Amino acid sequence: MMGQQPRTESLFYYFRLEDQIPNDHLLKRLDRSVDFRFVRERLRDAYSLMGRPSIDPEILLRMLLVGYLYGITSERRLVEEIRMHLAYRWFTRLGFEQEIPDHSTFSKNRHGRFREAGIFLEVFEEIVRCCLEAGLVEGKRLTVDGTVVTANASRQRGTKPEQLEEVAKISRTVREYLADLARENSVAGHEENPPAHDSVAARYISTTDPDACWASKFGAAVPSYYDHYLIDNASCIILSVEATRARFRQETLAARRMLAQVKERFGVCPESLGADKAYGSGEFLAWLLERNIQPHIPVIDRRHQTHRRFTRDQFQYDSVENAFRCPQGQTLRYHGMTRENQGYIYRTAESQCRGCPVKKQCTPAPFRKIFVHWHEPARQVARDLAQSSAFARSKRERNKIEALFSELKLRVGLRRVRLRRLWNVAEQFYLAATAQNLKRLVRFLVRREPVPVQCAN
User: Fold this and answer.
1) pLDDT, tens digit, 9 for 90 and up, residues 314-371
2) What is the pLDDT of residues 52-67, one digit of tens each?
3) What span, in angstroms and rounded, lies between the C-alpha atoms of 260 and 290?
């Protein structure tokens, strides 16, 4: 006889939520491994002692982590997924008798106590400390890189810097941006060398998100940000995160800040740093060597880009006269210094090159010029290190940071940021990196758990 299951509902159920979640589920393992109660302690001073009880900030954090762990990119959709998913409900401590917080709660806390307390940075750093205490991080070989993440802004809505004041009359975002910029400039004005603001130097500024800068990896340029990672090669743990405007020069600046942060906050002093050629400026290489960090970085070098003409290696340097000699014996004397390119110029006179039998092999110009970088000794050290086996290993391990960026965009779903303004974007980058670290920490701790042995009768 064919069975039939009628749709009936009982008045009461015996149902224990935890029993429905497998012990090897990621969220159950995560709940056993990491204690998030420090969030309440950190935010205690941000709440009043009077009035109605608010939503537990630990619950809000757990909800956000669910979104980043499972690539749920919309907070509205996140609320709906938690409402329906048993494991999400259990991890966020929300039973069936409790109401799910509204999606607007995230925005209210983000613009208030969360931002003032810098809680997302603290959560990220707390997870890094857990990784260090567990013995997961080696901290000797590090890699740094950045990836372009598209901003939540239209490429059609932009204006020139001189027109921002006019746009600010009708745009609250632009008014807030100009107010922030004025505060930054007032602080920088007391410094000896106030830093130039990237967006002010830009030729075109987005009115949707003025902090974003036009950048292009492939195809047309769009408003974007840089997400910088500093990772431990042995464990793929992200030790530091920086959100910056998508400017090329921000890469080395962010790398310096991240290396200083991991030394100050975690006591991590790496022996080597791997990176691609974008980090191969002489200034950055010298900065690393001053701190006893071996730069496993290709040097930005144009010495041999001479279209089959004489290279600089074919010119002999005379340290006594501070001059170079060409293959024909002519002297290239010191001509001056260029601050823009950070180096020294040596050149011949036009009369020295006139009538030279090998001039076509040397230069198409009336005279030959040689450029020597200020940090040439550091650049030479980096060239020598590029021949070592340690450099080859570091070059292979750079694939790990690319894999993390792929995970960021494909698994976490952060090809495009959801929020606007730099401080909001930084929050997303911290939470995404926290989710990536949590997965690796849980996997490491599970491998260390003793396997129960069944005794034979």
Assistant:
1) 888 888 888 888 888 888 888 888 777 778 888 888 888 888 888 888 888 888 888 8
2) 667 778 888 889 999 9
3) 13
**CA-closest candidate to residue 228, choices 239, 214, 217, 216:** 239
Pairing, β 272-274 against β 294-296: parallel
Q: Quick check: 428 and 228 in contact, CB under 8 A?
A: no
| Cα(368)–Cα(350) distance, integer angstroms | 8
Instruction: Please name each of the domains of the chain with its CATH number.
Output: 17-117 (no CATH), 127-157+208-298+386-448 (3.30.420.10), 312-374 (no CATH)
The CA distances from residue 412 to 3, 20, 49, 417, in Å, are 44, 25, 37, 11
Residue 90 neighbours by CB under 8 Å, 6+ apart: 17, 18, 20, 21, 27, 28
Q: What is the pTM of this model?
A: 0.82
CA neighbor of 235 nearest in space, from 139, 166, 170: 139
Contacts of 182 (CB under 8 A, 6+ apart): none
